[in-house]
Amino acid sequence: MLNSTIDRVTDRLRERSLKTRGDYLARLAAAAKEGPARGHLACGNQAHAYAAMGADKEALAAARAPNIGIVTAYNDMLSAHQPYEDYPKLIRTAARRVGATAQVAGGVPAMCDGVTQGQAGMELSLFSRDVIALAAGVALSHNTFDAALFLGVCDKIVPGLVMAAAAFGHIPAVFVPAGPMTSGLPNDEKSKVRNAFATGDVGREALMAAEMASYHGPGTCTFYGTANTNQMLMEFMGLHLPGASFVNPGTPLREALTLHAVERAAAITALGNDFRPAGEILDERAYVNGLVGLMATGGSTNLVLHLPAMARASGVLLDLVDFDEISQAVPLMAKVYPNGLADVNHFHAAGGLGFMIGQLLDQGLLHPDAKTVAGDGLSHYRSEPKLRDGRLAWEPGANVTLNDKILRPAADPFQPTGGLRQLSGNLGRGVIKVSAVAPERHIIEAPCRIFHDQNDVKAAFKAGEFTSDTVVVVRFQGPQANGMPELHSLTPMLSVCQDRGLKMALVTDGRMSGASGKVPAAIHVSPEAAKGGPLARLRDGDIVRLDAVAGTLSVLAADFDARTPVTADLSANRHGMGRELFEAFRQSVGTSETGAAVVI
Questions:
Q1: DSSP, res 562
Q2: Which residue of 292, 452, 465, 533 is most buried, as measured by CB atoms within 10 A?
Q3: What is the pLDDT of residues 241-298, one digit of tens each?
Q4: Residue 405: inside a domain, yes or no?
Q5: What is the total count of domains within the chain?
Q6: How far apart are CA 121 and CA 177, in angstroms?
């Protein structure tokens, strides 16, 4: 039996999306009716597409074998994407083995938030998601592909690729991960060094050594931030092969999974008997299953922006109330840093996503009938891949946790509800992630201190100005103001203040990192200050109440509604580091509630 909350939220989502989803499916049906695209191209068009394909030319010209388009986010600055360097050659070889062909359709940009954190380049980060969707759209617009393989892992890359997969939803899409790096310096040890550096107790040499020992090789960063939350989502939403998310790069199993992804993509095109277009997989059930996974794992707050944008690209209208209600119904089953001490390798070893999906299915918390690239029904994702005599096989996954300090059954979770709450009140609407916040800090009421730049917060901390309970308000950080950069570099300073016994909270119309931690943070507050939102009427010393229990965010000031919103000089956000190229994005971006999207 499906849980009543999951059932109700899904029905409401279907009703809310009736027209937009209906229009979307009608467009897909019209596109699919045209049949495999290459047969409709002129000979000259096709000759251009196949000119460099050598031995594959004959098969491509015959248009009877599936042609798979590869959209890659490879670069070797992102550790998570460096393994993709050799994937195209591997994919082309695997395609030939099953009578198909494969071509790199195009590349998409992939920036690293770890590099740009606290830097001007971070102001391009959120918009890069829409650029990725646009670039992938250009790649697939050549109309010569029967299916697509998407190679991407990290923060904005996977959401942008999903948006493109939805736009080309009349063909199948298989997402191919690269896996997490092996475990390095434990994340809690790295965090201690960061905090010690913030207080001046250690120097930059010690900080650099700790960071390099933590981020040390190919693969996704091992904490449970946005990149690894993306990988979880692709499995819960049926776009990965079962068990593919957290297998390390450079291993025989990783290669076998990549080869099988090619085989599967070739098998589910319109040329065969098991047609699985991406648009049919990306329905209301898939997005609800993704929300359940987000809550059960305590995943990244960035997905509160990305999931609505992804969903809207496939005609599904997610709302913050859906996040909130599902969070209240879904238990927190995992403790992975920053919500615990373990990393994703430990989580995977303890039973990982196969155990979790099985548990949630048994509790009626997932749609079991969702369509996936592996087949009809999410039960395929209870299994885990193994290499047996060099051959890939799926076997039953763990039915008990192998480490209950990391992963617990749904009937005995770390806490009965997920880690995310919607906040609303006279300061607007936002969200808070509380899975790593101590219960005694779920309600904070204190005078606020107003900042318009995160660097001013750092300067105030270094000057020793935070000596009493404070709600730090960093406004004019929304998508229209400056592209909504992450403010994760404030976390060590606010953590230090909290460790000194102060009650601290952050309120912002900007973002925190996917690794949001132990300091209460009301984020994505909308309407944003740059659009005259309520945060623009706050003054230093106003008493702000953040109540994650009741789900409220308010200021206790009798004259608040009568105040004139302040404005800010945002000219410094308009140039340098490529920011001048994104003026049109800032002017046309949607609200954070609807995904802060430009292209949908």
A1: G
A2: 292
A3: 999 999 999 999 999 999 999 999 999 999 999 999 999 999 999 999 999 999 999 9
A4: no
A5: 2
A6: 26
